[in-house]
Model the fold of this input.
Amino acid sequence: MVSNRSKVSHQPVMVAEVVELLITNPQGTYLDLTAGGGGHLKSLARRLGPRARLFGLDWDPDAVDRTRRALRGIVQPYNIVQAAFGDLGTVAARFEDERFDGILLDLGLSSYQLESPERGFSFRHDGPLDMRFDPTRGRPAWELIGSLDEKQLARLIREFGEEKQANRIARAIVMERQKVSIRTTTQLADIVLGAVRSPQKNKLLARVFQAFRIAVNQELEQLARVLPAALHLLVPGGRLAVISYHSLEDRQVKRFLQAESRGRCSCPVELAVCVCGAVERVIVLTPRPLAPKSEEIEQNPRARSARLRVGEKL
Ligand SMILES: C[S@@+](CC[C@H](N)C(=O)[O-])C[C@H]1O[C@@H](n2cnc3c(N)ncnc32)[C@H](O)[C@@H]1O
Done:
């Protein structure tokens, strides 16, 4: 298990679009809730004026260290916080400022995480099946894989991996774990490939690994909690930008922005006017999500599934 961490770098995705759409006030206050390696924060810093203030957060302690190093002299280390963004409502008090002109979420994984075998995120490296963003808390993937029954495994793989052959994979996992405990990425990949014939092996593995990663980190619950909390912390006219990498996330972001732009009206459809007192809180600036330009995808293939949605608080 050789870590090539020192050689890895993470290329921030859709930087030009994020900078363009997120900055409304060059002397304002901005928060990146998925600091990663500080890539987007650095790009924002380059565009902002001298009185602007930047803050960052990441669940992964390594990402926090990396961002602090990358932004030395630009952001005070204590303004880069280690926490899950799902806890933003309570964590926000740890930032010096508590109102922001722009908040960014660049969901998913960084290249640092993917390329570190010991984190267990990738089927391309042999490593322990961990997959936690914060490896000091919660249950690693191998524990989940060892404890769920066949039905629960199948549901998880189907719902979070959008994988049609989930039943066969779950069955194969259960059969295998009767013989030996499933602890490594290679074991899981071999079980999946042994259970399902697929011409697109990497896509199949990516879906199954995504499913377990989402479950381990409760990613959809995290997203459901952070969206309203982030909106709450924006000043009027402030913007929320979210880059997602698969349809489950993108759907959630789209529905949230749509609901906030309609004022979460709960009146019966037969009523011609709203009587429930719902208030529109957002203007959607991206009726369709923005995708990376082809040049960016050519240069950074990991950007290909990125979709950016932006809303402005009223
Ligand atoms: C795609 S990377 C961000 C890269 C960053 N934008 C950059 O340019 O360097 C996503 C980051 O989000 C973090 N992350 C994922 N889920 C999180 C959560 N619930 N709370 C906080 N950070 C999270 C991951 O640890 C990872 O570092």
In short: The chain has two domains: 5-111+220-313, 113-217. The domain at 5-111+220-313 is CATH 3.40.50.150 (Rossmann fold). Residues 10, 12, 34, 36-40, 57-60, 63, 84-86, 106, 108-110, 133, 222 surround S-adenosylmethionine (CB under 6 Å). The beta strands are 29-32, 53-58, 80-82, 100-106, 234-244, 282-284, 307-313.
